[in-house]
Amino acid sequence: MNSRNQRLVVGITGASGSIYGIKLTETLLDMGYDVHLIVSNAGWRVLKEEMNWNVTDREGILNDKFGGRPGSLIYHPVSDIGASIASGSFLVEGMIVMPCSMGTLSSIASGASDNLMARAADVMMKEGRPLVLVPRETPLHAIHLENMLKLARLQVKIIPAMPAFYFHPRSMDDLVLFLVGKVLDSLRIEHNLFARWGESEHDAT
């Protein structure tokens, strides 16, 4: 039986907080995972606006930002509905959409599967594989909350971008890595991205 690297799908949407998806991808690649990356059209716009990425050459910028790490990055255009990850027969360990816009969350909740992001998420649910969504929106109205409840009842993990402060973060990077670590915790992936309660010298007594 042939062995393979573990595979995870990462989606980056047009919600604010593209740094979350970037740090997650870097972390997984550093751990040796094969990362199948999808970026929505709005996600590319946010990468340009928030991270000052030159997104004219999309594959070029991804190679520049993520190359030279132990894992492999496989980029799939969001319009490529025939990509490997659109099929349940292609084995992956799970999928994370980080950050997840309310539009993408709504599409997943409705089973629309009208692009690769939503289709890959639909595959995770139908195959019983882990799906983690990291919504980044405020305030939330009833439709947002109803969609999250619907997905949570289908065993989808909802991890809102709500950083903690008990570990005394010293930088923006600390706050971002905390959220990445919470996502990895939900997938039972070991890491040391933040100090856990009871393990920090700053813990309350």
UniProtKB/TrEMBL annotation:
Top class in the EC scheme: transferase
Residues that coordinate or bind dimethylallyl phosphate: Y166, K182
Alphabetized InterPro entries for the sequence: Flavin_trans-like, Flavoprotein, UbiX-like
Catalyzed chemical reaction(s): dimethylallyl phosphate + FMNH2 = prenylated FMNH2 + phosphate
Keywords, in A-Z order: Flavoprotein, FMN, Prenyltransferase, Transferase
Record-listed E.C. numbers: 2.5.1.129
Domain Flavoprotein: 7-187
Gene Ontology molecular functions: flavin prenyltransferase activity
Residues annotated for FMN binding in this entry: G14, A15, S16, S40, S101, M102, G103, T104, R136
Record family assignment: Belongs to the UbiX/PAD1 family.
Entry function: Flavin prenyltransferase that catalyzes the synthesis of the prenylated FMN cofactor (prenyl-FMN) for 4-hydroxy-3-polyprenylbenzoic acid decarboxylase UbiD. The prenyltransferase is metal-independent and links a dimethylallyl moiety from dimethylallyl monophosphate (DMAP) to the flavin N5 and C6 atoms of FMN.
Full protein name: Flavin prenyltransferase UbiX
UniProt organism field: Paenibacillus lacisoli
Higher taxonomy: Bacteria, Bacillati, Bacillota, Bacilli, Bacillales
